[in-house]
């Protein structure tokens, strides 16, 4: 934790210059600040929702000077965008089982585990709700899913190459077809989908793909 200065001392040290992309050394002060702030932002989103996310409060809870937080992220939506970007980077890589159905079952199981997690499920609900009325949050959420779809799309492409799916199958659409009913179940019922729901989603997506629904 980065402590605030003692009373009577300078209110806050001179801010460090923003580093060039890709130059931040792991373990450096900038990386520690980002890690602390994003962790707190995620906690607040999961516990209290988007409406309660405040940069000054996040800075206080993270033990970081609020000037640093405002300078780096600029706004709540900027902070949420960075949080989603970090989550996409930290997400587990795809599983390759040797069959498109096995791979997409693994994808569905990962989505179900994520949505069932007390922190992650609540965080996603908060961000999805915010995205419905905030354009920048919606764009950040879109980018998050673009990264995740791109990670799993090769499983479908390999299925096409093995002859399991028709040539011309849109890999991204198949991956989306797996997760879409799982998120819908969460948002409409408030209950995270279980393993059986994941199995059904994967099986339905593969059956549709084999039938040529996603060719075009």
From TrEMBL:
Domain HTH tetR-type: 31-91
Annotated PROSITE patterns: HTH_TETR_2
Coiled-coil residues: none
Superkingdom, taxonomy of origin: Bacteria
Keyword Transcription applies: yes
Any matching Pfam family: TetR_C_11
InterPro entries in alphabetical order: Homeodomain-like_sf, HTH-type_TetR-like_transc_reg, HTH_TetR, Tet_transcr_reg_TetR-rel_C_sf, TetR_C
Disordered as annotated region, ranges: 1-30
Name of the protein in its database record: TetR family transcriptional regulator
Organism whose genome encodes this protein: Streptomyces dioscori
